[in-house]
């Protein structure tokens, strides 16, 4: 019996980990034993720690690179480790600059095809930043191909943060999506909240009964609105058999806090602003002054969020952006503590 695989795709800061948290909690509520593969562009495991802290899930991690490029050869090994645990379902969360087509190719490799099956590809879109990113990143041809592939290969496209934009913007986003994928179902929502029953349809604990063939996606309702369609048959821009690197100008830099040092929120947010023309995403666990709890900080677009964390390690930040100069960034970071 093959294990169903649900792939979560979408650009940086679109809400993939938030959706995965909901999927894990729903899986446990259904008596399912999920397996998780987390791919992080940076060297630090920010999102994997969030999953482990909030759900207790065992997470296989591929750090410091993308499964489409520098971590491509390790993808099969990680899936093998998950298969040995005999999960009822495997969730794969890709980096924001990964092409889900690489997962599809891997699932069709002979050594995996008899044990794994592609259940769904879900792509999340950041409504607040999508149109700006399309313009801002247009010079990075490889990344443009990847973002198009994320849309084209999806069964379900979630337009997240829809509450932060106008109906006119949502209409433009829907038109942009339909240009790449005329058939996928589209959900407009906030905080990655969608009905999960259709996405998990047909997945049952192994000891209960054989896994039936998955029913077509048929989501019922949404916090805002949705458009419905059938399974996607669109294809990415790459020719059959062609593989392009997911990104060329996007990179990650990890910034460590000097031992015993802290920074106020205002200083960190101003630091994000200094790099606004190149910064796409920042996240990490940071220590604030005054003995306050460790904070999980997440920055995407122009928005920064903070929440308490029980992270026990040394504080750090991961910067992800275009054409980042690591030495220059590290020098400016060090200057904040002088």
Automatic annotation (TrEMBL):
Region (Disordered): 212-239
Cellular component, GO, one term: cytoplasm
GO MF terms, alphabetically ordered: hydrolase activity; nucleotide binding
InterPro entries: CobW-likC_sf, CobW-like_C, CobW/HypB/UreG_nucleotide-bd, P-loop_NTPase, Zinc-reg_GTPase_activator
Stored Gene3D superfamilies: CobW-like, C-terminal domain, P-loop containing nucleotide triphosphate hydrolases
Matching CDD domains: CobW-like
Transmembrane feature ranges: none
Residue span(s) of domain CobW C-terminal: 252-337
UniProt keyword list: Chaperone, Hydrolase, Nucleotide-binding
UniProt catalytic activity: GTP + H2O = GDP + phosphate + H(+)
Family per record: Belongs to the SIMIBI class G3E GTPase family. ZNG1 subfamily.
Name this protein carries in UniProt: CobW C-terminal domain-containing protein
């Amino acid at each position: 019996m093959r294990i169903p695989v649900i792939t979560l795709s979408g650009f940086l800061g679109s809400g993939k980990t938030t959706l995965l948290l909901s999927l894990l909690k729903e899986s446990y509520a259904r008596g399912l034993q999920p397996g998780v593969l987390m791919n992080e562009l940076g060297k630090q495991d920010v999102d994997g720690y969030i999953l482990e802290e909030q759900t207790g899930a065992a997470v296989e991690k591929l750090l410091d690179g993308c499964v489409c490029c520098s971590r491509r050869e390790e993808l099969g090994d990680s899936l093998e480790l998950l298969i040995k645990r005999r999960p009822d379902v495997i969730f794969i969360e890709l980096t924001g600059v990964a092409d889900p087509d690489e997962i599809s190719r891997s699932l069709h490799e002979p050594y995996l095809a008899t044990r794994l099956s592609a259940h769904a590809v879900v792509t999340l879109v950041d409504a607040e930043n999508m149109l700006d990113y399309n313009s801002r990143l247009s010079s990075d041809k490889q990344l443009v191909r990847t973002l198009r592939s994320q849309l084209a290969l999806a069964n379900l496209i979630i337009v997240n943060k829809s509450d932060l934009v106008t109906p006119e913007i949502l209409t433009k986003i829907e038109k942009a999506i339909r240009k790449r994928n005329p058939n996928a179902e589209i959900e407009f929502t906030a905080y990655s909240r969608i009905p999960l029953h259709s996405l998990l349809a047909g997945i049952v604990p192994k000891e209960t009964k054989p896994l039936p063939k998955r029913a077509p996606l048929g989501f019922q309702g949404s916090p805002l609105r949705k458009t419905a369609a059938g399974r996607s048959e669109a294809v990415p821009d790459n020719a059959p058999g062609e593989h392009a690197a997911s990104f060329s100008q996007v990179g990650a830099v990890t910034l460590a806090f000097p031992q015993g040092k802290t920074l106020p929120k205002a200083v960190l947010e101003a630091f994000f602003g200094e790099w606004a023309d190149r910064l796409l995403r920042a996240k990490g666990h940071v220590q604030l002054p005054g003995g306050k709890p460790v904070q999980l900080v997440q920055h995407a677009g122009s928005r920064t969020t903070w929440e308490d964390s029980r992270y026990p390690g040394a504080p750090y930040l991961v910067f992800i952006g275009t054409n980042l100069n690591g030495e220059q960034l590290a020098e400016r970071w060090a200057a904040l503590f002088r």
